[in-house]
Amino acid sequence: MFSKACEYGIKAMIYIAQQDAGQRVGLKQIAQATDSPEAFTAKILQMLARNGVLVSFKGPSGGFSLPKDAGSVHLNQIVSAIDGDEIFTGCGLGLAQCDGNKPCPVHFKFASVRDGLSHMLHSTSLKELADGLDSGKVFLKQ
Asked: Residue ranges of the domains in the chain?
């Protein structure tokens, strides 16, 4: 459903949100904690920083941190920054021309799935997911 980059981005952002507020987290630490390749993780994190979802600090004491409270960052912001908004508006079969007036064969069934996914992404905060990790009920790595 999400690109591999988006999956890594979501995991990285949850991990960063789990750290102490305002604490800078290093690239190697993020990549190791999320089982993601370091070079690919760096590109993803820079993409998130360019889109204002993450703050990047250069230099020996550099790293990454959230620009605001984890409760105000939602999954839809991460998905949009990495994969774009196609997941919220696109055709289930990938057709360029698909809407209520000229639907593809799965249009009406997919619309409800897409709407449910959109609702979940817009209503789920990083804080909520980081709190789940802290409780030990969910995991980022197997």
From this structure: 4-135
Q: Which residue has the tokens 């889109």?
A: 51
The answer to whether residue 142 scores a pLDDT higher than 70 is: no
Query: Per residue in 41-57, pLDDT tens?
Result: 999 999 999 999 999 99
* The pairing of beta strand 63-65 with beta strand 55-57: antiparallel
- Give the residue from 3, 42, 5, 19 showing the smallest Cα distance to 133: 19
| Topology (CATH) of 4-135 | Arc Repressor Mutant, subunit A (1.10.10)
**What pLDDT does residue 10 have?**
96
- Kindly report the three-state secondary structure assignment for every residue of the chain: CCCHHHHHHHHHHHHHHHCCCCCCECHHHHHHHHCCCHHHHHHHHHHHHHCCCCEEECCCCCEEECCCCHHHCEHHHHHHHHHCCHHHHCCCCCCCCCCCCCCCCCHHHHHHHHHHHHHHHHHCEHHHHHHHHHHCCCCCCC
Average confidence score pLDDT of the chain: 91
